[in-house]
Inverse folding.
């Protein structure tokens, strides 16, 4: 991590503290303490376990896409640290833009070729986006009318989030199946948008865009060939997402809200994930907390319970990943001996 990343980390921690202070400032401190003491710590532990397993399943997705016959075995820490690194850099960069490059560096630290690592991460990204969209569509079919009826303002944000995801997936599919047309379309769209920039900078942006499209298209050919891997990775990604979505349900159980319907809670959490994705602030800070309060106020009767639930949910799904990511960045895998042993076997 460089100074810029460290500064961003402290800014996001400071912003988080500020948000929770604002939400809790009108609540009696003794009431918060009493609510905390009354927590069901078994379910709170399950919530922590659920997110840790979610990272583990994501590591399995990565391992599935990387695994090849005749190559050395990847250590568990090599794979597990990559989702943690992603969680950290997603949390401190706008629109979670830093996660992909950080994962690439993490894989290259494991002596994995940069081109291959980029290919695998691209496949992982496409699969993840598709599975998020599938889960969201199912959630909308199950319970969107109820959400739209009770939270009309929030429903607009939910639809906007869905539109962004659909547009992203559609663009990626266009590259895969309509490569030449997509390149021409991007050039036509970008040229007037970049008209006011200097020619040198404009050409650099256009060249970078075309290079990214070419790279994605080449890797999409790999994606089409590896159908079994893609299917297995897709099923694991669904499991990963559900382990993440279930965190909020376990937090509600920890708050002794035993009356909640698990399907309704999962649908609400899926909606929050979709809303957070449209906020440019790292981690969707502000938007995530507002969405939680709006959607779960009906599940948690007391103001102190609502604020504590929001804090626990946010810590487990967001801040914990940041802290674990710092450990993952600092603790690099020791693989030199593994690589040497594999080379000796080949000889």
């Amino acid at each position: 991590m460089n100074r810029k990343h460290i500064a961003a980390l402290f800014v996001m921690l400071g912003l988080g503290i500020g948000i929770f202070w604002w939400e809790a400032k009108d609540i009696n401190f003794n009431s918060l303490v009493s609510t905390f003491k009354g927590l069901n710590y078994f379910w709170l532990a399950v919530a922590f376990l659920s997110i840790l397993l979610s990272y583990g399943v994501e590591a399995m997705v990565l391992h599935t896409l990387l695994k090849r016959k005749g190559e050395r075995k990847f250590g568990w820490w090599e794979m597990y640290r990559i989702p943690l690194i992603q969680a950290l850099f997603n949390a401190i960069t706008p629109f979670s833009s830093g996660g992909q490059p950080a994962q690439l560096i993490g894989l290259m630290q494991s002596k994995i070729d940069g081109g291959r690592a980029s290919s695998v991460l691209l496949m992982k990204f496409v699969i993840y986006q598709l599975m998020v969209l599938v889960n969201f569509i199912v959630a909308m079919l199950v319970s969107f009318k109820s959400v739209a009826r009770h939270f009309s303002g929030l429903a607009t944000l939910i639809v906007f989030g869905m539109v962004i995801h659909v547009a992203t997936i559609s663009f990626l599919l266009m590259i895969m199946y309509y490569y030449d047309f997509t390149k021409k379309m991007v050039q036509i769209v970008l040229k007037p948008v970049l008209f006011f920039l200097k020619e040198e900078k404009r050409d650099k942006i256009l060249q970078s865009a075309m290079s990214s499209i070419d790279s994605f298209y080449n890797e999409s050919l790999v994606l089409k060939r590896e159908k079994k891997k893609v299917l297995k990775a897709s099923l694991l990604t669904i499991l990963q997402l559900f382990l993440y979505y279930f965190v909020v349900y376990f937090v509600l159980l920890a708050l002794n809200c035993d009356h909640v319907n698990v399907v309704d809670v999962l649908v609400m959490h899926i909606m929050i994930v979709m809303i957070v994705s449209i906020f440019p602030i790292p981690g969707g800070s502000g938007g995530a907390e507002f969405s939680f309060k709006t959607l779960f106020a009906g599940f948690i009767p007391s103001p102190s319970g609502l604020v504590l639930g929001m804090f626990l949910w946010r810590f487990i799904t967001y801040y914990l990943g940041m802290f674990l990511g710092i450990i993952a960045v600092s603790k690099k895998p020791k693989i030199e001996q593994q690589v040497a042993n594999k080379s000796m076997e080949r000889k």
